[in-house]
UniProtKB/TrEMBL annotation:
<keyword id="KW-0285">Flavoprotein</keyword>
<dbReference type="InterPro" id="IPR020946">
    <property type="entry name" value="Flavin_mOase-like"/>
</dbReference>
<dbReference type="InterPro" id="IPR000960">
    <property type="entry name" value="Flavin_mOase"/>
</dbReference>
<keyword id="KW-0560">Oxidoreductase</keyword>
<dbReference type="Pfam" id="PF00743">
    <property type="entry name" value="FMO-like"/>
</dbReference>
<protein>
    <submittedName>
        <fullName>NAD(P)/FAD-dependent oxidoreductase</fullName>
    </submittedName>
</protein>
<dbReference type="InterPro" id="IPR051209">
    <property type="entry name" value="FAD-bind_Monooxygenase_sf"/>
</dbReference>
<dbReference type="InterPro" id="IPR036188">
    <property type="entry name" value="FAD/NAD-bd_sf"/>
</dbReference>
<keyword id="KW-0274">FAD</keyword>
């Protein structure tokens, strides 16, 4: 049974005039940054959140069947363990409850500012501070940390006639729980991770479900199950056991990264996925439509126990012809077929390589991040950008993963930011930004490594690729290699900016 939802205490709406650190976003990354700041003895910060509560993607995504596709033990902070996960793969509401618990456990409420959308952030070369304009006022900050994530802005494709559709239109990240689906004719657009969770969750109650598939996904069984009470009690009473299980899962999933770096290994792994497909889908015609023609791993692999079985049910049809237009009460595909629907659900993903906030962050030379990136986000270590002093991007370019928990990447980034803050304090300096030559060398090496991966050689086009065709989303290696490279701040790789004369401490 789902526990009663705890209410976060009321937060202040007043903005401080100035803070040492301004954090944008109250999802995993933003809350993790806040916790680590407090643990490091820094309490001069604020968390700016445009919504009315914490949670990020786990607040915004409330569609039926939502769950994590990484084991619960890995999908939580190492510095904020949760021994009470109910399942091997946590449902979305439970992850949201965990984040709300983190707010209470680490007393973050005084630092939260809900309803404060960041409208712009500009670096002031004179004061060597960030000027931040929000929907509720302005403030300045020595350090500006973006924690908006890669999955915050949903994409709905531009379909001819969509505006005249008389039924209900929903994106997976903008779900309307008040719209009853029982007995309806539902069209689902997309076959990614969200659609693979939505389809089996709603299939038993809808009258008819049409899945509009552009590209089939590789599907592997998940093996999800409840975590027993005795196991949870053991995790709670003997933390070392929980840590050992977490480490075991981490090492197991790390091994999957080898396949992404060497596509021939994944081609061998496809045999298992194909055998699973044959066992579940006995209809040869349907099985053919669901068989991918690209190397496994080129697109995100779906892990699900119930997605493929749901597609075999009598009230489900898988349509592979491209979408041509939307009418008032139907979708027409390229083969001329008319599919009557009264509800359209888009599981079409997000804008991971075009951070909307990047259009509103202005650096040292007056250009925005979006202008500097020109359609292909690039950052040193995925965290900092030359020309943008004291700007730190959590879950920035090339820090997402295809094989394990992004929390592991995130914690290395948090350590890097803390290292930079300690360095600034020790030197009495104003700011740091990556050396342009160091950043360029890092990007060249990153792109060279990426060219050998399955994402470049697997024969598909995925959301990992940006407008230029470059993979600016994923890290081409293990989380261990990322941690070794990122967690320690190395001053020699950065340019240090001294404090302006007006801000130097007065001599006694």
């Amino acid at each position: 049974m789902r526990p009663r939802r705890q209410e976060v205490p009321p937060v202040s709406s007043r903005l401080p005039q100035h803070v040492r650190v301004a954090i944008v976003g109250a999802g995993f990354a933003g809350l993790g940054m806040a916790i680590r700041l407090k643990q490091d003895g820094i309490d001069d910060f604020v968390i700016l959140e445009r919504a009315a509560e914490v949670g990020g993607v786990w607040r915004d995504n409330v569609y039926p069947g939502i769950a994590c596709d990484v084991q619960s033990l890995l999908y939580s902070f190492s510095f904020a363990p949760n021994p009470g996960w109910s399942r091997v793969y946590s449902p979305g509401w439970e992850i949201q409850a965990y984040l709300r618990d983190c707010v209470e456990r680490f007393q973050l409420t005084p630092f939260l500012r809900f309803g404060h959308a960041v409208l712009s952030a500009k670096w002031d070369p004179a004061t060597r501070r960030w000027g931040v304009e929000t929907s509720q006022g302005t403030l300045t900050a020595d350090v500006f940390v973006t924690a908006v994530g890669a999955l915050s802005e949903p994409i709905i494709p531009h379909l001819p006639g969509l505006e005249r559709f008389r039924g209900k239109v929903m994106h997976s990240a903008r779900w309307d729980p008040g719209h009853a689906l029982a007995g309806r004719n539902v069209g689902v657009v997309g076959t990614g991770a969200s659609a693979a969770q939505i389809v089996p969750a709603i299939q038993p109650e809808v009258g008819r479900l049409v899945l509009f598939q552009r590209t089939p996904a590789w599907v592997l069984p998940r093996g999800d199950k409840p975590i027993s009470g005795p196991r949870r009690a053991l995790y709670r009473r003997v933390p070392g056991v929980r840590w050992l299980f977490r480490e075991g899962l981490r090492l197991l999933r790390e091994a999957l990264a080898v396949g992404f770096q060497h596509p021939w290994i994944l081609r061998l792994g496809q045999r298992f996925a194909l055998r699973h497909l044959r066992q579940v889908v006995t209809d040869p015609a349907l099985r053919d439509r669901l068989t991918p023609r690209y190397t496994m791993g080129c697109k995100r692999v779906i892990v699900s126990d119930d997605y493929l079985p749901a597609l075999t049910r009598p009230n489900v049809e898988v349509v592979t012809s491209p979408l041509r237009e939307v009418r008032e009460d139907a979708v027409v595909t390229g083969d001329g077929a008319v599919h009557p629907v009264d509800t359209l659900i888009f599981g079409t993903g997000f804008q991971p390589t075009d951070m909307p906030l990047g259009h509103h962050i202005q650096g040292r030379e007056g250009r925005t991040l979006a202008q500097v990136w020109a359609g292909s986000p690039k950052a040193y270590l995925g965290i900092t950008v030359s020309g943008f002093p004291n700007l730190f991007l959590l879950q920035g370019p090339n820090t997402n993963l295809g094989h394990t928990s992004v929390i592991l990447m995130m914690e290395a980034q948090l350590d890097h930011v803390l290292g930079a803050l300690r360095y600034l304090d020790a030197r009495g300096a104003a700011a740091v930004e990556p050396d342009p030559g160091v950043q360029d060398a890092f990007i060249r090496d990153l792109d060279a490594r990426m060219s050998r991966t399955v994402w470049s050689q697997g024969g598909c086009r995925s959301w990992y690729l940006d407008a230029t065709g470059r993979n600016s989303a994923l890290w081409p290696g293990t989380t261990s290699s990322f941690r070794r490279r990122v967690e320690h701040f190395e001053p020699s790789e950065y340019v240090t900016l001294p404090r302006p004369v007006s801000r130097l401490p007065a001599r006694s």
